[in-house]
């Protein structure tokens, strides 16, 4: 029984309950369908392989386990900056910002807050909900574009959590798409590497890279951290049905924070040496540069296509998902994508008004609030997508719990 919007009521058995998905890796994503045997072979096609007998060829790896999201958490800086606060330092107003973006407030890192402390707090909450001890973690994935160390912040988060077993920890840098890529990476480690518990953190402190005199960008960004625990499970209980991930370096000129051009003099000295060698010790990054119109066009074109591709791989339709959870960049983008996918407003998860664009943190932050408020319940299917600098974009069809 479907409601008027074409979505199944959460209290009524839906298509999700009838699907016992098998998982395989194909192309840019994992497909899931009840028409395929539960033992799925993941292997490439090798030229000439038809000439090799089965006894001679190497046996392909079999996908023997799935993965599911079992815990979430989030953390925010204490300092809140409203649109009215911004109006005191740039030529703008609450109405101007809210009409164009949907944002009214954002949190900004200050004082004793840091990317590490926010990430550790969000991670601890996710571990507590999942009932997983830090020492039982096999991997920590830190999805951020604003690490506090050139070489990455994941090991410092691992240290802050008190992990005594020294699980692998590394950073994923993909801006606002980072968290979705973290989910995909977690699934690959679990399915292909035998990992059991993977912590995926999305966290960014973009306020440090904002030009607070530029009303076109300073109104958009905030700081936050969010985390989920992805855990191995029986293939029948798999909670990551499919994904679709992409990038386009050509579009990077529309959204970036590149190394500043120091107008290096490449003149050559009399002995043939380059005068500007050795390089300067510190390279500074510019503030965030964004062509808002081009980014908007990119998002409303590519994100729906990516979600539709992921749904097709999962053997699902838009009407069979419970929630649409997009990267919280701009309410107009969220609404445009939802319209394209025919998702009604009551099935959209959005907290953009309160926090602005928190980059890699936006999806896990919104998910955590939706879960803890009781909006998202165990068994609900979510279509989620991240998109941003790179340009990168990706989507995943997941089941909570």
Task: Explain the layout of strands and helices.
Layout: H1 15-18, E1 22-26, E2 29-33, E3 41-42, E4 61-62, E5 66-75, E6 79-82, H2 83-86, H3 94-101, E7 105-108, H4 115-130, E8 139-143, H5 154-160, E9 168-172, H6 178-193, E10 197-205, E11 223-233, E12 240-247, E13 255-256, E14 289-290, H7 292-314, E15 323-326, H8 331-341, H9 352-355, H10 362-372, E16 381-388, E17 392-399
Parallel strand pairs: 8-9, 8-10, 15-16
Antiparallel strand pairs: 1-2, 3-4, 5-11, 6-7, 10-11, 12-17, 13-14, 16-17
Helix pairs in contact: 4-5, 7-8
Number of strands: 17
How much beta, percentage-wise? 15-25%
Biggest sheet strand line-up: 5-11-10-8-9
How would you describe the oligomerization state of the chains in this entry? single chain
Q: Please give the alpha-carbon distance between the first and last residues.
A: 23 Å
Shape: globular
């Amino acid at each position: 029984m479907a409601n008027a919007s074409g979505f199944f009521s959460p209290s009524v058995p839906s298509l999700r309950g009838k699907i016992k998905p098998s998982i395989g890796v194909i192309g840019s994503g994992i497909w899931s369908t009840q028409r395929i045997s539960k033992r799925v072979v993941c292997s490439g096609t090798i030229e000439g392989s038809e000439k090799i007998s089965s006894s001679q060829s190497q046996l392909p790896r079999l996908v023997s386990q799935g993965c599911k999201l079992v815990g979430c958490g989030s953390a925010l800086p204490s300092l809140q900056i409203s649109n009215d606060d911004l109006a005191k330092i740039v030529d703008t107003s609450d109405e101007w910002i809210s009409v164009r973006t949907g944002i009214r407030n954002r949190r900004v890192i200050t004082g004793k807050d840091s990317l590490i402390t926010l990430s550790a707090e969000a991670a601890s909450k996710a571990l507590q909900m999942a009932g997983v001890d830090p020492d039982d973690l096999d991997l920590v994935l830190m999805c951020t574009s604003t690490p506090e160390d050139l070489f990455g912040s994941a090991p410092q988060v691992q240290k802050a959590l008190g992990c005594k077993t020294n699980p692998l920890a590394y950073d994923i840098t993909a801006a606002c798409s980072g968290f979705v890529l973290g989910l995909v990476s977690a699934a690959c480690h679990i399915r292909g590497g035998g990992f059991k518990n993977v912590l995926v953190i999305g966290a960014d402190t973009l306020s440090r890279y904002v030009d607070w005199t530029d009303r076109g960008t300073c109104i958009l960004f905030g700081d936050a951290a969010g985390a989920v625990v992805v855990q191995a499970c029986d293939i029948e209980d798999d909670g990551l049905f499919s994904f679709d991930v992409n990038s386009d370096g050509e579009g990077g000129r529309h959204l970036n924070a590149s190394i500043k051009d120091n107008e290096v003099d490449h003149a050559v000295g009399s002995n043939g040496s380059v005068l500007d060698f050795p390089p300067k010790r510190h390279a500074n990054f510019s503030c965030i540069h964004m062509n808002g119109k081009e980014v908007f066009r990119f998002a409303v074109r590519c994100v729906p296509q990516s979600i539709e591709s992921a749904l097709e791989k999962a053997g699902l339709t838009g009407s069979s998902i419970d929630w649409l959870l997009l990267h919280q960049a701009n309410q107009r983008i969220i609404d445009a994508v939802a319209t394209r996918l025919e998702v009604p407003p009551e099935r959209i998860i959005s907290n953009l008004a309160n926090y602005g664009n928190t980059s890699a943190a936006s999806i896990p932050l919104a998910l955590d609030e939706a879960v803890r408020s009781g909006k998202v319940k165990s068994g609900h299917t979510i279509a989620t997508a991240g998109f941003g600098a790179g340009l990168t974009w990706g989507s995943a069809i997941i089941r909570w719990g």
